[in-house]
From TrEMBL:
The gene is ackA. Belongs to the acetokinase family. This is Acetate kinase. Mg(2+). Can also accept Mn(2+). Pfam families: Acetate_kinase (PF00871).
Length: 400
């Protein structure tokens, strides 16, 4: 069975064609600049690349182009659309309505529409992707896999904000958390890598352009760093993370900014970019630090210190830790960030081995010393596999 995995954003869409049973990836690609000019980057399972510059005025035309590329011409990997059995969609916000993946029905789309105020940029694009697939591939099952679903097991005292209670009952204002598919995948892999099978206490640091940490007890998320929206928690590429409400209102009055301008600043101009003044890309900021740029040094120190604080608080929430996991572009590749985060955590049972930490690999691995009480894992995330696998299970009736 081949599953077409779609991650539809506002001006781009990412796709993959994967067999979830064999884990064989036939093609991976991205359509960028939809509505502007249009670029399709299509990669075969072996990494060979194909770039097509073609106008894509709408998402529908972009998906049509992807389906044509998969079935015809230079990019062909399957004979026809009939070789796609199902479609798995990455969906961002499932609110409190979706605690697991679901078959896309009219009712599901209606519910996702009601959740648009919670994810005004993402949910409309996700819904559009679902509706276009239903139109272009009639009769094929579509499954929605939500970024928020894995975090629905958080207890109320972890997800509530201490605002007047009716803000929660009237507007659903609470922490939801994101990157759930990655937190699930990585924590699940980590459980498999641990010797103990019960009372597993796992902390996952998903560190990419967007970053979040989660605490996972026996496979269930009990806390996570992102909130009602992804701006909360860790300092990220361009997002501020945790900032006091007083600082925000003071900045607004000093700068004469509207709430939307302020949110734009906190989402797109803050974080690593805002502090370094150089880039949102950690690699460039690490290079800047090497060259002696003190604001780049500050950005790197802040990134690592923020992660460390969350790790410490989640050790407390879990009453100990069995495995600390690093994933995402930064977590998988930056030995330096892992080293600074873990420095001084020996008292919590986390003892990193510098040689293992510095060894490059794209495989899941343990970088703790042999005598470390808890494990430290680097685990490449695979959100697409979770989407394909959930889609397969739901479509084949293995899971309701
Ligand atoms: P996204 O959240 O968009 O999926 P990624 O998970 O790909 O992003 O992570 C992107 C981040 O990973 C960037 O900040 C990038 O600099 C960082 N990164 C990638 N490779 C390295 C590396 N070798 N060393 C340090 N940072 C890296």
């Amino acid at each position: 069975m081949n599953v077409f995995i779609l991650n539809a954003g506002s001006s781009s869409l990412k796709y993959q064609l994967m067999n979830p049973v064999t884990k064989n990836v036939l093609a991976v690609g991205i359509c960028e600049r939809i509505g502007i000019d249009g670029v399709l980057k299509h990669e075969f399972g072996d990494g060979q690349e194909l770039k097509i510059d073609v106008s894509m005025p709408t998402h529908k035309e972009a998906i049509e182009l992807v389906l044509r590329t998969l079935t015809d011409g230079e990019g062909k990997v399957i004979d026809s659309i009939d070789d796609i059995e199902a479609i798995g969609h990455r969906a961002v916000h499932g609110g409190e309505e979706f605690a697991s993946s679901v078959m896309v029905t009219e009712k599901v789309i209606e519910t996702m529409k009601k959740l648009i105020p919670l994810a005004p940029l993402h949910n409309p694009a996700n819904i559009m992707g679902m509706e276009i697939c239903q139109e272009l591939m009639p009769g094929k099952p579509n499954v929605a896999v939500f970024d928020t679903a894995f975090h629905q097991t958080m207890p109320d005292y972890a997800y509530m904000y201490a605002l007047p209670y009716d803000q929660y009952t009237k507007h659903g204002i609470r922490k939801y958390g994101f990157h759930g598919t990655s937190h699930f995948f990585v924590s699940n892999e980590a459980r498999g890598m641990l010797d103990k099978k019960h009372n597993t206490r796992i902390i996952v640091c998903h560190l990419g352009n967007g970053s979040s940490v989660s605490a996972v007890l026996n496979g269930k998320c009990i806390d996570t760093s992102m909130g009602l929206t992804p701006v909360q928690g860790l300092m990220m590429g361009t997002r501020a993370g945790d900032v006091g409400a007083g600082a925000i209102s003071f900045m607004m009055s000093q700068e004469g900014m509207t709430i939307n301008e302020t949110l734009d600043l906190m989402n797109k101009k803050s974080g690593i970019l805002g502090i370094s003044g150089k880039s949102s890309d950690l690699r460039e900021v690490l290079d800047g630090m090497q060259e002696g740029d003190d604001r780049c040094r500050l950005a790197v120190d802040m990134v690592a210190y923020n992660i460390k604080k969350y790790v410490g608080s989640y050790v407390a929430a879990l009453d100990g830790v069995d495995a600390l996991c690093f994933t995402g572009g930064i977590g998988e590749n930056s030995a330096l960030i892992r080293e600074i985060v873990c420095a001084g955590l020996d008292g919590m049972g986390l003892n990193i081995d510098p040689t293992k930490n510095n060894k490059r690999s794209n495989k899941a691995r343990d970088i703790a010393t042999n005598s470390s009480a808890a494990r430290i894992f680097v685990i490449p995330t695979n959100e697409e596999y979770v989407i394909a696998s959930d889609t397969y299970k739901i479509v084949s009736g293995l899971e309701k």
